Amino acid sequence: MKPSRRRSREVTDLMNSLAAHVEDLAEDGYRRRRAADLARITAAGRVPSRADRRVLPVRRRRGPLVMAGVATAAVAAVAAGVLAVPDHGRGAPRVPPRALDARSVLLAGADLAAKQPETAHGAYWYSQIREVERARRPAPGRSNGGSANGRPRSGPYFPFRAYASITWENWDPYRQGTPSRTVDRDIQSRFATPADKAAWQRAGSPSLTDMKPFSADGHADEPYLELGPKGTTMAGLAKLPTTSEGLRKLVVSDRNRRIARLRSLHAQHQELSLTEDILNAGIGVITSPAPPKVRAAAYRMLAAQEGIRGIGPARDGLGRSGVALAVGVVERTTLGGTQRSEEHLIVDPASARILAREYYPIGADGTAAREPSHYTLMISAGWTGRIGVPAG
Amino acid sequence: VHDPDERFTALYDRHYRSVLGYTLLRAGQDAAEDVVSETFLVAWRRLDDLPDLPLPWLLGVARNLLYKQYDSGRRRQALADRIAAATTADDLAGPDVADRIADRTAVRAALDALGERDVEVIVLATWYDLAPRDAARVLGCSAATFAVRLHRARRRLARALAVPPVRTSLVQEGVR
Question: Among A10, A61, A98, A188, which is most exposed with the fewest C-beta within 10 angstroms?
Answer without folding.
Answer: A98
